[in-house]
Amino acid sequence: MAAPQPLAVTRAATTEQQETGGAGGVRTRRAVRVLLFLAAVALPCLVVYHYRAVAPADVLVRRGAAAVPSRLGAPRDDDVDLDGEDARLERVLRGAAMANDTVILTTLNAAWSEPGSVLELFLESFRTGDSTRELLDHLVIVSLDTAAHARCKLVHRHCFALVTGGVDFSGQKNFMTDGYLKMMWRRIDFLRQVLEKGFSFIFTDTDIVWFRNPLPHFYPDGDFQIACDHFTGDPDDLSNAPNGGFAYVRSNTETIEFYRFWYAAREKHPGLHDQDVLNAIKRDPYVAELGVKVKFLSTELFGGLCEPSRNMSRVCTMHANCCIGLRRKISDLNAMLQDWRRFMALPRHYKHSVSWTVPRHCSLQKLEG
Ligand SMILES: *[C@@H]1O[C@H](CO)[C@@H](O)[C@H](O)[C@H]1NC(C)=O
Ligand SMILES: *[C@@H]1O[C@H](CO)[C@@H](O)[C@H](O)[C@H]1NC(C)=O
C-alpha cells in the first residue's frame, strides 16, 4: 500500500491513550478490580452497597463503552493493505456503484487536490448543478499519491489510492512531460481493471465541471462513448477529435479487450499521449473486428474551452481543455461556475440571453487534453 494514513493513525493512537491512560491506566484498572473483589467478598454488606453506589462501577462501565469508538477510530482495511489492491478496489467500487454497477471515476494528484485548486471547483459544480448533487454518492476519487488520498478522505466518501510502483505523481504535471504520460497510461490500465470487475463507468477529468446528469444523454447502443475537443456533428464519424478526459464505457468483453489493445498500443507509439494513440488505433481493423461500438459525444452537451457548448439549457459538462497551466485552468473553471450561477439565477424567459464568458485566461488553440 502506497498510502499509510498519518491522520487516522494519529487519531487512533490518541484515542487509545485517552482510554487506557497508558500502562498506568492498566495498573489502575487492575487495582480497581482487586478492590472490587475484596469489597464483594470480605467487607460487610453495607460497605459494599455504599461502594457500588459511588464511582468505581460507573467508571468501569464508561470505560467499556469507550472501547468501541477506539476500534472504529483505528485504521480501516482500505488504509492498511490487508487483502491487496484488488479486493480494496472491489470494495470501494461496490460502495459507490449505482444499482446497475455504474460508477463515476476521476483521478487526482496532489497539486490538483489542494484547497482552492481543481478538486474543490469540481466538487462545487456537483453541488450547484441541476440534480447533480446526488451523483456525488457514486463518485470514486482515485488518488495517484499519498497527499491526494489524504485530501480526498477529508472531503469525500469514496476514495481509492492507486498503487504505482516507484512513480511519483504528486507534482503539477505539464502536458506531455514524461510524468504526465505515465500518469495517463496508468489511468488507461486502471480503467481496464474496473471494466474487468464488471463495473461500467463515466470517467471524468477533475478539470471538468458538471452541471447536469449526463446519463440520460448517452447513446443506448454505444459501448465506448467519448467527449470531443471538436465535434463534427456526427456521433459515428471517426474523424471526430476525441478527448479522453470524459468517457462513458459499459463493461463487456468488447470494451475490456478494447482497453487492453489501447494500452498495449502505447508500445508501438512511444512518447504519445493516450488520446493520440486512440486516434491512431480508432481505424485499426482489429477494433472493427472486436465489434466495440464507439460513439462521439456532442460538444453541445459535453463542451469545453476548445469548443464551448452553445446552449446552457442543455449543457451537462464543461472541460478546461485547450488550456495550459494550473492557474489559468482554475481561473476559467471559476468563470464557468460563475456563468452557471448567473444562468440559474435568471427567470426562465431570460435564460437564453446568458452565454459563457470563457475562455478568458486560456487560449482557444488545441493544446492540452
Ligand atoms: C445505469 O443506470 C442509469 C440510471 O438509471 C442509466 O442511465 C444507465 O444507462 C444504466 N447503465 C447501464 C450500463 O445499464
Ligand atoms: C437550447 O436548448 C433548449 C432546450 O432543449 C431549446 O429549447 C432551445 O431552443 C435551445 N436554444 C438554442 C439556441 O439552440
Write a structural description.
By secondary structure, this protein is of the alpha/beta class. It has two domains: 8-73; 84-302, Spore Coat Polysaccharide Biosynthesis Protein SpsA, Chain A, CATH 3.90.550. Helices cover 45% and strands 13% of the residues. It is built from 13 helices and ten strands. The strands form two sheets. The protein has a seven-stranded mixed β-sheet. Helix 8 links the parallel strand 2 and strand 3. The protein starts with 5 loop residues before the first helix and ends in a 24-residue tail after the last helix. The relative contact order is 0.10. Mean pLDDT is 81; it is low at 1-26 and 41-78. Residues 98, 100, 102, 200, 215, 250 line the site of one 2-acetamido-2-deoxy-beta-D-glucopyranose. One of its GO terms (biological process) is cell wall organization. GO terms for molecular function: glycosyltransferase activity. The chain crosses the membrane at residues 34-51.
Task: Note the main attributes of this structure.
single chain; alpha/beta; 45% helix; binds 2-acetamido-2-deoxy-beta-D-glucopyranose; Spore Coat Polysaccharide Biosynthesis Protein SpsA, Chain A; seven-stranded mixed beta sheet; three-stranded mixed beta sheet; 2 domains; 369 residues
